[in-house]
Amino acid sequence: MPELHAANAMPATTIPAAAGVGLRLQHMPLLANDPDDAPRRAAWLEIHSENFLNAGGARRAMLQEIAARYPISCHGVGLSLGSAQGLDAAHLERLKNLFTWAKPALISEHLSWSVVDGAYLNDLLPLPYTTDALKTVGDNISRAQDAFGRKILIENPSSYLQFAASSMPEYEFLARLAENTGCGLLLDVNNIYVSAANNGFDAGRYIANIPANVVGEIHLAGHSIEDEGDNRVLVDTHSTYVCDPVWALYRATLDHVGVVPTLIEWDLDVPAFEELQAEAARAQGFMNATRKVMHVA
Amino acid sequence: MLLEMQRAFKATVMGTGDADAVAALVRAPKGDVSRRIAVYRNTVQKSLTDVLAAAFPVTERIVGPRFFFVLARDYAVQFPPEVPQLSVYGAGFADFIAHHPRTQGLAYLPDVARLEWARGETYFAADAPPLNAAWLSAFGPEQLPQARFVVHPATRLVRSAYPIHRIWSVNQPEVAEVPAVDMAAAQSVLLTRPVYDVGLRLLSEADAAFVAACAAGATLNDAAVAALAVDEGFDLQAALQEHFRQGTFTDVVA
After folding, report:
1. Do A79 and B84 touch (CB under 8 A)?
2. Is the pLDDT of residue A10 over 80?
3. How far apart are CA B242 and CA B185, in angstroms?
4. Which structural domains are found in chain A, ordered by start?
5. Is B171 among the domain residues?
């Protein structure tokens, strides 16, 4: 990646405790071409870090236009914090360069793995929740935070199975990661709902056991349902509207953690941006109705 | 322990390993373990083949989506991404097609895939100013033939024994019915990005020899000689004007 002049760097800012929208590539021309004085289409935007690692071209240029008008959060999908073999130094460097350029107000990644023996599998794969894994993931998070020089938020994954070796629930694993590394948490309420349905645990209990003071962001998305006989699997497709039980769970989450930045994600069969704005407005309504406001770094 | 699990999981989702090795480690309600593992397998395989389909849409149209899925899955299993950056995944796909037993009847296909890959590289390449004619005034009439043109970071030249420009053009989404293509013609395609839009242009073979020579570091004089060896009617002046317009080069150095 070439050196970028300071004048080309983007403004740093903070993510407001309001509803944002996941920025998808097909919506970038729309937002990049808005005049400076046009009304903002979202309180803030989140990008997938790995989509912006290229040296140049239209995509980065559009992001630069957009970031001049919106606070940006960088959400990673490729760091593989759960890798038993540790983090890839080259990828840490790529992300560090991106953050230096894009100056995101928030950085987040997942509690999952996607790399083994140098192969990147492009999915957020599950981990056993053991004390061994807690050390591996914690070391990886600390290394990433040291490399970036700042705190990252860790998102709970959607899962379809559990490991027999797990010795603690996911919420405890996350709480201990936050305690051990100083990382924050990104609670994906849809993922909690999906994982609870798939693995037979109680979503409300999960949320009640999350340490409220470390939650810095919430994700909301839609999932799809696959039925086969009386076996049902919820698949985290991000392909539709947030469902009513997830909205109810979101309200319970706000009651527990307070009003924190909340993001609408939609990745497959992506609709017009206005649809995402409508979902964000709905989330904003729940936030406005939640009295308790907390400040998380 | 964690590493063994991850290796077994990788083999299972790539379809190269024994799913029982993973099944023994996990649990799911109602004993639905194999179906739950399949959710991960489907996601991994579909996401990687989707990435390749997005990078090679003309290749996919030529062979059809079902066979493309087989090709792309075979590639993903043998050559999974080495970098978590999907815009650089697929660099070896054209060579893979060239050696795949089931595409040997489509000799032109690897070059079509090379053209598609070059197009992506052009789109994502570093930004740089395009060279324009005014910059040449720094050189005297004796110095200019010895100057070297530096190609723009986004410039790619794809040369083929097949009519790849024609094949690419007639397989665009807006073309409903693909006409017959005369396979006898060799074609070279120049990809450039003066600002952000990728330009894709059929180049004369003489001009292609000129650009290739410049890219290899030849002087302007030697590059012109290479072009004239292909076609003694090569018009250097006209060719350069077009290259300046398209942003083929970014600099000229003594």
Report:
1. yes
2. no
3. 23
4. 6-289 (3.20.20.150)
5. yes
Report the CATH number at residue B158: 3.90.930
Place of tokens 């492009």: A122
Residue B199 has a pLDDT of: 96
- Alpha carbon distance A17, A12 (integer Å): 16
Contacts of B47 in chain A (CB under 8 A): 122-123
Q: What is the arithmetic mean of pLDDT over A46-71?
A: 96
Residue A162's beta-bridge partner residues?
A: B27
Which segments of chain B have a pLDDT < 50? none
Residues of B in contact with A114 (CB under 8 A): 84
Q: Scanning every residue of chain B, which has its alpha carbon at the shortest distance from the alpha carbon of A82?
A: B2
- Region A114-123 average pLDDT: 98
Which CA distances in Å does A23 have to A47, A75, A250, A286? 5, 11, 21, 22
Do B70 and B151 lie in one domain? The reply is: no
In chain A, residues 52-111 whose CB comes closer than 8 Å to chain B: 53-59, 61, 77-80, 82-85, 88, 90-91, 94
One-letter identity of residue A195: S
Chain B residues whose beta carbon lies within 8 Å of the beta carbon of residue A230: 30
Q: Who among B3, B27, B128 is closest to A85 (CB)?
A: B3
Q: Is residue B102 part of a domain?
A: yes
Q: Is residue B57 part of a domain?
A: yes
Q: Residue B159 belongs to what domain range?
A: 127-254
Contact at CB, A120 and B87, closer than 8 angstroms: no
**C-alpha pair distances (Å), B106 with each of A92, A217, B68, B162, B228:** 41, 51, 13, 11, 33
